[in-house]
Design goal:
about 425 residues; alpha+beta
């Protein structure tokens, strides 16, 4: 009519009265709902409860066949806004949502062809199967399934944009967002069957990746430093008790580190992160402490209790194991085979401490009492020196046994740590 620049109130009121009915002239024709969304932010990931909290910009399109007008008859007006509560709208929901906090715009844009656009801002708390085995280099794949709750095949859903366009739009807004970054958005349309009923659904797979810098700086690097210090502690003198006390201090510090780290590590009922290798590192540090205790016990053998090194220990440790680990003997120390020969030669030969005897006297002459007392003192001194020499030899033998065992256990310890570190790094590289 003349004087009107758009649909009249009476015509719109007639449409509002049909709110309860699906806006289709022929009810056998389905209503197509086109969906697109932009992932604006990942607000939180709760691995223990398997919950993902996101913020989406959702855009929904459909066609209202009763809201069509000719722009030429309405002064060229092609678009108006109407309250959404007065119009029929498809009941599109997200199936995985545990909680939906929507900030929906109360108005929709209506085109002269009857196409409606409804923008919604959703804060979704949705269920997601989170895999944390490769933490902090984990990649999560969460699913958003959009579909109608009541309508079966009379309301069909399809993507309004290509999945690549949705992914690019989301990456533009997630570039500066917190801990997570968007890898890709994939999707497909399918049919959900339940008995004789069928629903059109569209499934989006949102692939997000954790930014590991925070955890590398706060967890991996400090742990690596502590393990490096534990390895370097093997270069302390093994006969010193300071090595054991130093290792115990390291274990205490690492235990405190694990308690602090426990608040940063994710936990789930169905999986354990590979970063739990920190506990294995603690076990390795305890093993290194036990090795130090064993070596200290060997090096502090009492010569009164252990008269000499058993022959099998001398053969196995000082000969075979020393050759296996390329143990370097000091210049003033001979290998065990040479020691054995020298021991045999000295027992058969005449070498050894001097034996002091008084000068030969005539049968009728007796030595002076002072001379007898001097000979007695010299004999006691000789016996004492012999005992000290034997004790020193025994201690030297046990010291070399301890040194050889220390070299052997240190190399085994390095091999264990190297193998374990290679396994962890390889698995992380595969996941990355």
């Amino acid at each position: 009519k003349e004087g009107h620049s758009g649909p009249t109130y009476e015509s719109l009121q007639a449409v509002f009265n049909l709110q309860a009915f699906r806006p289709a002239v022929n009810l056998s024709n389905p209503t197509i709902a086109n969906i697109s969304f932009t992932l604006y932010a990942v607000l939180g990931v709760n691995e223990k409860t398997q919950i993902l909290t996101t913020f989406l910009w959702l855009r929904l399109y459909w066609r209202h066949e009763f809201l069509v007008w000719d722009p030429d008859e309405c002064d060229g007006l092609t678009k108006i806004s109407l309250p959404v509560k007065e119009l029929w709208s498809p009941d599109i929901i997200v199936y995985e949502v545990d909680d939906d906090v929507s900030q929906a715009c109360p108005y929709v844009y209506v085109n002269h062809t009857g196409h409606i656009r409804w923008d919604r801002m959703l804060r979704l708390v949705s269920a997601c199967n989170l895999e944390i085995f490769s933490f902090p280099f984990d990649v999560q794949n969460c699913t958003f399934t959009f579909g109608s709750y009541m309508h079966t095949r009379d309301v069909r859903v399809s993507p309004a944009l290509t999945f690549k366009e949705m992914s690019q739009n989301s990456k533009r807004y997630l570039e500066a967002s917190g801990e997570w970054e968007l890898v890709d958005i994939l999707g497909e349309t399918s049919i959900l069957k339940f008995g004789i009923d069928e629903w059109d659904i569209i499934t989006f797979w949102v692939v997000i990746k954790r930014r590991p810098v925070l955890y590398v700086v706060n967890l991996l690097i400090p742990s690596s430093f502590l393990m490096l210090i534990d390895i370097l502690s093997f270069y302390l003198p093994p006969h010193s008790v300071d090595r054991a006390s130093f290792k115990m201090t390291l274990i205490l510090g690492y235990t405190v580190f694990l308690l602090i780290m426990n608040d940063l590590l994710p936990s789930t009922a169905n999986g354990t992160p590979i970063i739990i290798y920190f506990s294995v590192c603690l076990a390795l540090m305890v093993i290194s402490l036990l090795e130090t205790v064993i070596i200290t016990n060997v090096l502090h053998h009492n010569s009164l209790k252990y008269r000499e090194v058993p022959n099998w220990v001398r053969v196995v440790v000082l000969k075979h194991i020393a050759n296996l680990i390329c143990y370097r003997w000091p210049e003033d120390v001979q290998p065990p085979s040479t020691l054995q020969k020298d021991k045999t030669g000295s027992s058969n030969g005449s070498s050894g401490p001097w034996i002091i005897q008084p000068a030969t006297q005539a049968p009728d002459q007796r030595p002076a009492p002072e001379l007898q007392q001097i000979c007695q003192y010299l004999g006691e001194l000789r016996a004492h020196l012999i005992s000290l020499q034997k004790e020193s030899q025994l201690l030297d033998q046990w010291c070399h046994v301890g040194y050889v065992l220390d070299f052997l256990l240190f190399r085994i310890y390095l091999l264990l740590i190297s193998c374990y570190a290679m396994v962890i790094i390889t698995m992380w590289c595969i996941w990355i």
